[in-house]
Sequence to fold (372 residues):
Amino acid sequence: TRSLCDWSSDVCSSDLHPGVGDKTSLILAPIAAAAGVIVPMVSGRGLGHTGGTLDKLQSIPGLQVDVDLERYKAILRETGLVLIGQTAEIAPADKVLYALRDATSTVESIPLLASSIMSKKLAEGIDGLVLDVKTGAGAFLTDLDDSRRLAETMCDIGRAMGKKVVALITRMDQPLGRAVGNAVEVAESIACLRGEGPDDLMEVSLLLAAEMVRLAGLAGTVDEARAKCARTIDDGSALDRFRRLIAAQGGDARVVDDPSLLPQPRRTIELESKRAGFIHALSARPIGLATMLLGAGRARVDSTIDPAVGLILRKKMGDRVEIGESLCTVLVDDEAALSKALMMIEDAYRVADEPMDEPRMVVVERLEADFS
Fold:
């Protein structure tokens, strides 16, 4: 493992324990960078029912996530942020361990999860790290105690290496945001950077970015940092930072202003509700598995990704729905597994007659490790 950033202070990164519809890295990194944080990020690919940051990024035409160490540093100097995957120079063992977890059915192993995540993060040369650890039915670790153990393990590793670490444990019972896939999640990320994203996704992205700004010493409190992050959306600087990142990594930056330039599906299907009522449940795991069957995810580490396919969730928990109204829009290319995917999506929804209680807060717990 080689350090990627040894020339600046105020270096802070973030890592997401994978979830369904979780495109937070694409949102928080430009926000934090626009707020003054140096943001080097080494991310992973999707596996099983969860998506991966690199797969989403590579749905942007031309964008490169495999760059050498010198180019990585140059992009970081040019734009204040960079998002790549592990390479032969950077955390090289992680690629082997990632495949091994898949082949040995140990994707959920806490020691392997912690070592995979932290090896990439520590290689970045960071001063601080913000972790988003998922819990709930759609997470790798469905039990809160297991999610807490993973968060504590990573905080302990960070502390032992002299790093400031904050871990937020967040819910993954239903997908985050309304887009699930790759290109469609990039489009939703762009909407968030315009201030037009779904409330749950905006909430988590701003809070994680604020924690990064505070850890970098650019704000005294999380509230102050959150206000600073919100201003980067209001003044357009976060969106411009994402545009600059895409161009620096060889991508077509026009997608920021025209998301229709992203890969588009061959057809769309509206999945209609068979009854009226209120959405009481939208299970993240079957949504993730259905999206994988459509081609947006990988059942095996060597599976091919179709960047154009996925879902747009028209109804989520707490929403009212009428008979015949669309629950979600299904983005389709290959129809080989379409029938099975549609059944899984329909089964993920539970509709009841009465309104549901107020939705639970997205953030469950916060842990902090400070070497000082």
Summary: Residues 5 and 163 are 14 Å apart (CA to CA). The first helix runs from residue 24 to 34. The two ends are 24 Å apart (CA to CA).
